[in-house]
Amino acid sequence: MAIICIRLEAEANIALNVSRLLVGTPHPFASPVQNLPSQIDEEAHKMGDYRDILSLTRVLVHGPESKADVDIVVERCAGAGHLQDDILYYCMELEKFPDDDEHRAYLMDMGIRALRRYFFLIAFRSYLYCTSASEMKFTTWMEARPELGHLCNNLRIDK
């Protein structure tokens, strides 16, 4: 559903208008930041700022714009499940169970799956910025960028 929303936005150029409207509007997760490292990390994670996602935005042509657009769509689709909250939940749960290997493996798997969905949504949005779906398939576009495959295959949430 989110991919359809992103594609519709790309074709209608709504994302540009939404970005203009949101300039100066605080992010829904924004709050006064205190100097506690764990709180800073949690705030960054709530905004989708994971190391691997930030690496993705650096290698994509329209990385930051793509991430911003996906974040808007994730917020709009929050009623069906909030992807960033899911990732944050699994990260926090991992910290609670340092000794239970089986439970940690489950949490790690679920967290990486959620992070991978977020990764592909951002990559798909960048694909739509770069080309149209009628010109090139998304899989072809991804295969032409081996660095994206490397990043995707090495996603981690326990950092």
Total separate domains: 1
Counting DSSP E segments of at least 2 residues, the number of strands comes to: 0
Low-pLDDT sequence parts: 12-38
Radius of gyration: 16 Å
Question: Could you describe the largest sheet, including whether it forms a barrel?
Answer: none
The proportion of residues in beta strands is under 5%
Number of helices in the DSSP assignment:
9
Q: What structural class do you assign from the helix and strand content?
A: mainly alpha
Gross geometry: globular
H and E string: HHHHHHHHH
Distance between the termini: 29 Å
Q: State mean pLDDT (0 to 100 scale).
A: 78
Helix content: 55-70%
Overview of the molecule:
By secondary structure, this protein is mainly α. It has one domain. About 70% of the residues lie in helices and about 0% in strands. It is built from nine helices and no strands. The chain has helices at about 1-10, 15-20, 35-45, 50-60, 65-75, 85-95, 100-130, 140-145, 145-155. α5 crosses α7 (about 100-130). The radius of gyration is 16 Å and the shape is globular. The model is unreliable at about 10-40 (pLDDT under 50).
Concise overview:
With 159 residues, this protein is mainly alpha-helical.
Task: Tell me the layout of helices and strands.
Layout: H1 2-12, H2 14-22, H3 37-46, H4 51-59, H5 63-76, H6 83-96, H7 101-130, H8 138-143, H9 146-153
